[in-house]
Amino acid sequence: MSVITVERKxxxxxxxxxxxxxxxxxxxxxxxxxxxxxPGSGKTTLxxxxxxxxxxxIATAVIEGDVQTDIDAQRIARHHVPVVQIITNGGCHLDAxxxxxxxxxxxxxxxxxLFIENVGNLVCPASYDLGEKFKVxxxxxxxxxDKPVKYPKxxxxxxxxxxxxxxxxxxxxxxxxxxxxxxxxxxxxLHFFDTSAKTGDGLDKWTDWLxxxx
Amino acid sequence: MHETAIAHDIIDIVEETLASSRAGSLQIVRVTIGExxxxxxxxLQHAYDSLISGTRIxxxxxxxxxxxxxxxxxxxxxxxxxxxxxxxxxxxxxxxIEVKTGNEFYIKELVVE
Lengths: 214, 113
Hints:
CATH class of chain B: Alpha Beta
Strand order of the largest sheet of chain B: 2-1-6
Oligomer: heterodimer
Radius of gyration of chain B: 18 Å
Shape of chain A: globular
CATH architecture of the domain at 12-141 and 203-211 in chain A: 3-Layer(aba) Sandwich
Largest sheet of chain A: 7 strands, parallel
């Protein structure tokens, strides 16, 4: 029996590619947001509304990650925004290599903000750096105010939390104060936006913040 | 359920290491995983076992060491462990803490025959 020392990070390949992407985004002045949520949080609807509100002010593009189908990419394409679909064929997260390959189909020089809509999942995508500047976790009020406690890693690595579907608060037992307390317990630096992609409530603050990023 | 993707990454690094070492048959892969890393050890072991089936490292096992989350409080300087993902100091309740351990995720060494 003998021992061979390895001491290598398991995700080193992803992290190396992510750093290359981060350098590239910085060089080309592209602000990249990695959008993370459970399935059904209203992430694509929020993105569609956001793209409409930014139209004419900011050049945007989208990378869509889905396990199957290009339904979401079709929705985004209706807003006349460059969009690249990544289908993971069962994979539960996007990785930096998939993003790198998708970038070949985008003219980065013409883009100011690139949204990467990750696969709907609050566990696996938290571990994969995509070279983004911000990780944005989107939670909807229908999911319950205990989401941060159940998925602490995601809330720990996120920079921004968008609480969506606030138009439904009157019909739910969702306690918005408790939700934010839970989230801040895990990550005191989280920056919150309360939105309803359906009614448009709160989208002005969210898009103001986005416009100030560039 | 990203354990399969992770098992692939582990196997890639193991194969690279073995290729450059003229080592004998692989017995154990020692992996260190912090509790902050959302990986389920049993699932990772199963994914690894099924991916190596029929390959030259078939029969080798993962030996996983879990590193608990610990942190230091920047308000009172106390060092403490976090059991429940409550990122605040148990002594002074400050949330200005820095995680010191629990994010590890690396292959430490291989045991070969």
